[in-house]
From TrEMBL:
Membrane topology: Multi-pass membrane protein
Record's protein name: Heme A synthase
Membership in a protein family: Belongs to the COX15/CtaA family. Type 1 subfamily.
Species the sequence originates in: Ureibacillus thermosphaericus
InterPro entries per record: COX15/CtaA_fam (IPR003780), COX15/CtaA_HemeA_synthase (IPR050450), HemeA_Synthase_type1 (IPR023755)
Pfam families: COX15-CtaA
Biological processes annotated in GO: heme A biosynthetic process
Length: 309
């Protein structure tokens, strides 16, 4: 690939990744502001016209989200086909490109179905998780584009069995945590438990008495467990992987992100669903999931490197 065109590809990769992040945060904003029907039961048009004639806050949020999704979808297609053409020698590229397109289309269809016919809370909770998979695939494609320079050791990692299984386990478990968080949001359970860290601090050891309290406290417990798990993995990487920078710093960053996630979750309760705090909560889990998926990619590369020995 000619040098000047490679730099263009880098810019496309960065723009597409940021665009996917905007899609995720835009979807969270639609949910948190109850703007899902800002365009009525109309899709892809908005209240019967391609460009909305009457602009309200809900219309602006919903229509902007649809517009950004459409624009970024074009960028995703450009990035996928460009990497397929120029970086086909990298074995992960075709699979990640397929994931990016497939889950981007799937999340758009679920969003459209919600507008046209409505969906149950348990189905809607999947929407954010499906969008995350598409984001992670695009993010990994972007990182592969930057790895071509070979300025760090991402293609030479050797991960031992213990860390491999912890990486796979915590990544799969993170999806459960994400689903429980989305379920809290879509069932309207965010303030069912008004205290933190317990549902009611004046009754710290009492069990939840309502379904929504179980949903909310189940998410808090799941978040606590992933915090402890990633802390353990970070300590393990700190002790045994100082010679592999991408592993060493990757797990330090993962711990910082999960800690920020916990803090944001606490402030959601303390600030009574402050919108900025809620969006930061979505941002941190998005970045954490993307990073964990990258660690899975490194696990696969490690197995490949071991087989070559």
């Amino acid at each position: 690939m000619q040098h000047r065109y490679y730099w263009i590809l880098k810019w496309v990769a960065v723009a597409t990744t940021l665009g996917m992040l905007l899609i995720l945060l835009g979807g969270a904003l639609v949910t948190k502001t109850d703007s899902g029907l800002g365009c009525g039961r109309n899709w892809p048009d908005c209240n019967g016209s391609l460009i909305p004639k009457e602009i309200t806050t809900e219309v602006l949020i919903e229509f902007s989200h649809r517009f950004v999704t459409g624009a970024v979808s074009i960028l995703v297609l450009i990035l996928v086909f460009w990497t397929w053409r120029s970086l086909s020698h990298v074995k992960e590229v075709k699979f990640l490109g397929f994931l990016a397109i497939f889950f981007l289309v799937l999340q758009a269809l679920i969003g459209a179905a919600q507008v046209l016919w409505g969906q149950g809370d348990f189905i809607l909770a999947l929407h954010f998780g499906i969008s995350l998979i598409s984001f992670a695939a695009v993010m990994l494609l972007a990182m592969i584009v930057f790895e071509v320079d070979q300025k760090f050791d991402a293609d030479r990692v050797i991960i031992r069995r213990k860390l491999k299984w912890h990486t796979i386990g915590v990544t799969l478990y993170s999806y459960i945590v994400i689903y429980t968080g989305a379920l809290v949001r879509h069932t309207g359970s965010s303030l069912t438990c008004p205290s933190w860290p317990f549902c009611y601090n004046d009754k710290p050891f009492s069990l939840p008495s309502k379904m929504y309290e179980w949903v909310h406290m189940g998410h808090r417990l799941a978040a606590l467990l992933i915090f402890i798990w990633i802390l353990y993995i970070m300590i393990h990487a700190f002790k045994h992987y100082k010679d592999q920078r991408v592993i060493y710093w990757g797990w330090i960053i993962a711990f910082i992100l999960v800690a920020l996630q916990i803090i944001a979750g606490m402030f959601i309760i303390l600030t009574q669903l402050n919108l900025v705090v809620s969006l930061l909560h979505s941002l941190f889990i998005t970045l954490l999931f993307g990073l964990l998926c990258y660690m899975i990619l490194l696990v696969a590369r490690s197995s490949y490197n071991e087989n070559k020995r």
